[in-house]
């Protein structure tokens, strides 16, 4: 089963947020790693380059 998570991050002083379905079995470090991977995918799809700060993730 999957849960939807709102993932938030800051890039170049702008906060971005999106919703992504994540596997319910992911917890702790595995969940954070999966969220970071989704942020990298989002940034690539939206032509955002450089560093980011993961600011939040929550079930929605």
Stretches with pLDDT under 50, minimum 5 residues: none
User: What's the overall geometry?
Assistant: elongated
Ends apart, CA distance between termini: 14 Å
Spell out the helices and strands N to C. Answer: EEHE
Strand content: over 45%
For the sheet with most strands, the description reads:
3 strands, antiparallel
**Helicity range:** 25-40%
Mean pLDDT: 94
Tally of discrete structural domains = 1
The radius of gyration computed from the alpha-carbon positions, rounded to a whole number of angstroms, is 11 Å
Number of helices: 1
How many strands? 3
**In terms of structural class, how would the helical and strand content be classed?**
alpha+beta
Strand order of the largest sheet: 2-1-3
Overall description:
With 60 residues, this protein is of the alpha+beta class. The protein has one domain. It contains 1 helix and 3 strands; from the N terminus they run E-E-H-E. The chain has one helix at residues 28-45; strands at residues 2-11, 14-23, 53-59. Strands 2-1-3 form a 3-stranded antiparallel β-sheet, covered by helices on one side. The model has no long low-confidence stretch (mean pLDDT 94).
């Amino acid at each position: 089963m999957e849960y939807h998570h709102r993932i938030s991050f800051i890039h170049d002083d702008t906060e971005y947020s999106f919703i992504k379905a994540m596997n319910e079995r992911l917890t702790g470090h595995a969940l954070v790693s999966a969220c970071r991977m989704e942020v990298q995918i989002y940034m690539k799809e939206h032509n955002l380059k450089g560093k980011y700060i993961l600011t939040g993730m929550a079930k929605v």
